[in-house]
TrEMBL record:
Domain of life: Eukaryota
Keywords, sorted A to Z: Membrane, Transmembrane, Transmembrane helix
Protein name: Uncharacterized protein
Organism in which the protein naturally occurs: Strongylocentrotus purpuratus
Keyword Membrane included in the entry's annotation: yes
Transmembrane segments: 21-43, 107-127, 284-302, 314-337, 344-363, 383-403, 424-447, 453-475
Length: 511
């Protein structure tokens, strides 16, 4: 579990003036992704690749040689290329299904699975060293780079180079076998859980109701913190899955949208590699990870738009949708807001609304040339994200409640490291759960489920949320919910407003 900024645990992490190896690791990661993205674009350009979007298919000789056109004209009987939302469900950057071989398919899955298991292993080893067998002399968060930092950092770099080489060898990525909605859904799931994790410190709207709001209304409406603590403690596995799964979903094509997307997944992998360092806790860096989707989502929607949309490109929906969440929720995790008068906290959102009303009222039109009609786009993404937070919270709360009922009087028993057999069984359950999540994505693609892409994405976000909740509960059985060097672990995080779960909760004053 990450410490909070106002607790003794956070303040005593590492107050020394030692060399900032964690900053060095971060800088290496940033330089790497910049160089890699430039190489990706240069190599693609040198091969004559210019597949900016499906709308440009007939203008690009190399694209016509490599891909099928977007299914603007439906092809009945051809999987993925007819029915509701065919153009949205079809992923353009994939080789024609007729050209897929066992080798091209097997290689991409082998690379993905190897990458995923490698990073999960690194996270698990690091967590065990910090929670099950902690060194009392070693601060939980420091400026050092341990072996469990360097190994995943270098490993992620190697897998990125492998993916670049694989793209220019066999090309195909997971998009051939899994639904496009699953790639987008995994990222939305990640962003939803970030909102949930940060709830204690920044609330959900203009910093409310955070831990600093102690009024009766705030206390009555504040969501119970047990689910938030649960995902905070075991989020690394879910976040690495979302990043790596999305990374291997796409080939390393030389477009701006792909470059920004791979940069985003890399930033999350870099953050994971910096676990238990001070950089990992930096709120400005963490905000960049959340907010990058504003740039990436907007650029991809702009890049893949075309004249067929009759001037109704979707990039405003992504830009203003994610900006809503940014100006109403995400900004207020920054330490600087402690020094800004509370009334001024509303200013970014007021400016955002003013610009949004102007562009939707006098700039953007619908297919019939009407203004104002599209203004509802501003609420679609934030509405979906906030509703998904509630769903995720309820799912986590339900599992904690079930645990309390099952364990009953045993819930206060001190944690004991599990046997090897028990540990293997629980870890197998974790892997099996994620396999089910991926299988659901494969089935949607294989069965050619004809449904609107957004609806499919929401369904998969719910499936992924339940799956992550299950894995968190499994991890909780083999790793303590708090560091074992905390002798006075008792209640803080409520599973509901009316009762505590002492088997999970940690005393913020004692940790």
């Amino acid at each position: 579990m990450e410490p909070y900024e106002d607790t003794p645990l956070y303040k005593k992490q590492d107050s020394s003036s030692r060399f900032r190896w964690d900053a060095v690791g971060w800088a290496i990661g940033i330089i790497f992704i910049i160089v890699l993205m430039l190489a990706m674009i240069f190599i693609g350009n040198s091969r004559g690749w210019d597949a900016e979007s499906g709308y440009c298919h007939n203008e690009s000789e190399s694209s016509q040689e490599r891909f099928l056109p977007e299914p603007y004209i439906e092809e009945p009987g051809v999987p993925g290329r007819h029915g509701s939302g065919a153009t949205a469900r079809w992923y353009y950057w994939q080789i024609p299904p007729a050209d897929v071989t066992a080798w091209t398919r097997g290689l991409m899955w082998l690379c993905y699975v190897a990458h995923q298991l490698f990073i999960w292993g690194c996270i698990y080893y690091a967590q065990r060293m910090k929670t099950v067998y902690p060194n009392p002399q070693d601060p939980k968060y420091s400026t050092d780079m341990k072996q469990f930092n360097w190994i995943p950092l270098v490993g992620n770099m190697v897998f990125h180079l492998i993916h670049l080489g694989q793209t220019h060898w066999t090309y195909d990525a997971l998009a051939q076998d899994v639904s496009e909605a699953s790639s987008q859904g995994s990222v939305i799931m990640l962003l939803v859980f970030v909102l949930m994790m940060e709830y204690r410190n920044r609330g959900m709207a203009f910093g409310w109701p955070s831990k600093d709001d102690t009024g009766k209304v705030s206390n009555a409406l504040r969501l119970p913190l047990g689910p938030q603590e649960l995902i905070r403690r075991y989020h690394g596995y879910a976040f690495s899955w979302a990043a790596i799964y999305t990374f291997w979903y796409h080939p390393m094509e030389n477009t701006l949208g792909h470059a920004l997307g791979f940069t985003h997944t890399w930033l999350f992998m870099l953050q994971g590699s910096l676990m238990y360092t001070q950089v990992h806790l930096n709120r400005y860096w963490r905000l960049l990870l959340e907010a990058w989707v504003i740039i990436h989502g907007s650029v991809v929607a702009w890049q893949t738009g075309g004249p067929a949309l009759d001037g109704t490109s979707l990039y405003p929906m992504f830009m203003f949708g994610f900006l809503w969440v940014f100006t109403m929720t995400q900004l207020f995790g920054l330490p600087v807001f402690k020094y800004i008068p509370r009334l001024l906290w509303f200013l970014p959102f007021i400016v955002y609304m003013g610009v949004g009303i102007y562009v939707y009222g006098w700039v953007f039109v619908d297919k019939e040339g009407r203004y104002w009609i599209r203004m509802n786009e501003m609420i679609r993404i934030p509405g979906t994200e906030y509703l998904c937070v509630i769903v995720a919270w309820l799912v986590m709360w339900f599992f904690l409640w079930i645990e309390k009922k099952i364990k009953s009087d045993r819930i206060d028993e001190p944690f004991q490291p599990p046997s090897i057999v028990k540990e293997i069984l629980y870890l197998s359950g974790v892997v099996f759960t994620y396999a089910i999540m991926v299988t659901a994505s494969i089935l949607i693609q294989t069965l050619d489920v004809k449904m609107d892409l957004i609806a499919l994405m929401v369904i998969l976000v719910i499936i992924f949320t339940v799956g992550v909740a299950v894995t968190c509960m499994l991890f909780k059985q083999i790793m303590p919910p708090y560091s074992r060097d905390s002798k006075d672990a008792s209640n803080i995080s409520r599973v509901s407003p009316t009762f505590d779960n002492p088997g999970f909760n940690v005393d913020e004053k004692k940790v």
